[in-house]
TrEMBL record:
This is Oleosin. It comes from Linum tenue. GO terms for cellular component: extracellular region; membrane; monolayer-surrounded lipid storage body. Residues 1-21 are annotated as: Disordered. Coiled coil: none annotated.
Length: 100
């Protein structure tokens, strides 16, 4: 390789490593726009959550004599079904182990 070809090759390598200034500006503007949009959306979701919580709290207090026992009952039912399934699987495992 002679000197002119070496400089051309080195120049293309340097060009590939360094991005043009306009590309960097566009990249930064896009990132700032996307970040700002997400920040605004996050704030709106937070505000909506606070508003919905303020509306729902009195309803939860009014209906708590009904909801709390219902949740306890549902929790016990789910626990019972999971325990039953677990013991059934354990029994099948033990029976298959004994059979072998």
């Amino acid at each position: 390789m002679d000197q002119s070809q070496h400089q051309q090759h080195g120049g293309t390598m340097q060009h590939q490593q360094q991005q043009p200034r306009s590309y960097q500006v566009v990249k930064a503007a896009t990132a700032a726009t996307a970040g700002g949009s997400m920040l605004v959306l996050s704030g709106l979701i937070l505000a909506a959550t606070v508003i919905m919580l303020t509306i729902a709290t009195p309803l939860l207090v009014i209906f708590s004599p009904v909801l709390v026992p219902a949740l306890i009952t549902v929790g016990l039912l789910i626990t019972g079904f999971l325990a039953s399934g677990g013991f059934g699987i354990a029994a099948i495992t033990v029976l298959s182990w004994i059979y072998r």
